[in-house]
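hiii, so i know i said id send this last week but things got crazy w the move. better late than never?? heres the sequnce for the chain we talked about at the cafe, plus the structure i predicted for it. fair warning i was half asleep when i ran it
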Amino acid sequence: MGYSKSGIQRLYREWQQRGDEALVDHRHGWPYKATVEVRDWMDERCTEDSEVRASRLTVEIEAQFGVKLHHDYVGLLRRQLGLPVPKPGRPSKKQEAEPALRQAQDPAPETEPERDFSP
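okay and structure toks below
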């Protein structure tokens, strides 16, 4: 993560006063949920589908890693990691239908050749 100049100076002063204990991240007793594994997975997932919504990512993260993240935090993580973020608002009907269309299209070759059909 990036630190500002003043943040680094503050950490340095704390380290001078308290030693290595000053660098331990206590975060009010809450564990850090967005581990390296979660961030790496988000990088892959958002790269393959840049229009996936944060609400969908939270469901997938919970299923895969057992971690509950708020959708706003997932959006913040995307921005911090430099990942694509979909435009705000509801997805259009076309965007919702595209995954269904992709699944409906069978990549297997057709068994019958195309024929002209005239009514």
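btw The radius of gyration is 23 Å. thought thatd interest u
miss u guys!!
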